[in-house]
Amino acid sequence: RPSQPRNVYLIMVAFTALVGFVLAVLSAVPPTASTPSSATGGELRGSQGSIGDVEPSIVKRNSSGGNQPGEGSAMVTDAIKMRFLAELSAQARCEDGSGDRRVGDCKEELCHKCLGSGAELVFNPKHGPDGFTTCVYHPPLPDAPSTFCGESFGDGRNTAGALSKCECCFGDGARLEYVSYAADGLGYTYCRRE
């Protein structure tokens, strides 16, 4: 009867052989020329860790074979923005809470900031003694803004009305903060609570 370490060794050898076989089969399959979903306006696929995984197939080539800015560059920028906003939403904590929070300045704006332009505040009077308000996701509205509460791509600290929108969402003392390296170098202006 083989010892315990011998069994582990045999399993590891078999697994290594299987992995080698799978890699050999995959490397023999020719790559397909598929268009990433971000090029058509959708989200980046989960296997794409950065825009560099998408960019080569959608940036135009000039006559000498080099990359040239153009329609592909706009698509790359849009893909960066969509992925960045999705990451922000994944980190966000909506302003859900007890009571009816649907009324008041910028309450809907905060919900949109959290879950996108299609989101809405829903009040359930039967949840808890004072009821409960929840920001509920709905697909984004076409042609609706993608940033809220004075936030924007690029340096929007001096954009007209941005600070007042930020203060409306987060109260007096809220501030706009520009981070130049955010959104894969596009830069992003955040609205921050004090």
Please give the order of strands in the largest beta sheet: 1-3-2
Helix share bin: 25-40%
General form? extended
Strand residue content: 5-15%
**Computed CA radius of gyration, to the nearest angstrom:** 24 Å
* Secondary-structure content class: alpha+beta
Helix count equals 4
Largest sheet: 3 strands, antiparallel
Q: Detail the poorly predicted runs.
A: 29-69
3D architecture notes:
The protein has 194 residues and is an alpha+beta fold. The chain contains four helices and six strands, in the order H-H-E-H-E-E-E-H-E-E. It has helices spanning 4-28, 71-91, 107-115, 162-170, and strands spanning 97-98, 120-124, 132-136, 152-153, 175-179, 188-192. The strands form two sheets. The chain has a three-stranded antiparallel β-sheet, covered by helices on one side. The chain has a three-stranded antiparallel β-sheet with strand order 4-6-5, covered by helices on one side. Strand 2 and strand 3 (132-136) form a beta hairpin. The longest helix has 25 residues, at 4-28. The protein is extended and about 70 Å long. The chain starts with a helix and ends with a strand.
